[in-house]
Amino acid sequence: xxxxxxxxxxxxxxxxxxxxxxxxxxxxxxxxxxxxxxxxxxxxxxxxxxxxxxxxxxxxxxxxxxxxxxxxxxxxxxxxxxxxxxxxxxxxxxxxxxxxxxxxxxxxxxxxxxxxxxxxxxxxxxxxxxxx
Length: 132
What we know:
By secondary structure, this protein is mainly alpha-helical. It has 5 helices and no strands.
């Protein structure tokens, strides 16, 4: 008997028309982040107060809680970027092209690429924490 695809939410992201490898890499990373935050964590990443009881009970150390908070802060930043901030940058690029301000558009595209790389790198850096 064939096993059910447990990651259908992800395979749906790359099915269909041809997609370049760079798009697939970017999309898979971002969709993994969205799924982790929205589905697995129900939209709430823990902050320092969420670890107080576990620290008091001796289940985790303060050092572990601090590392987790740093991770969660980084992932919140990346999530916000891909969920809302990136669209603003894309709109600026479109507006520059529409206004025939090609140099400004090219610079904005370059800045977007660099920012995307920074944010995607953070997903890879903290991938070991993306489990529940």
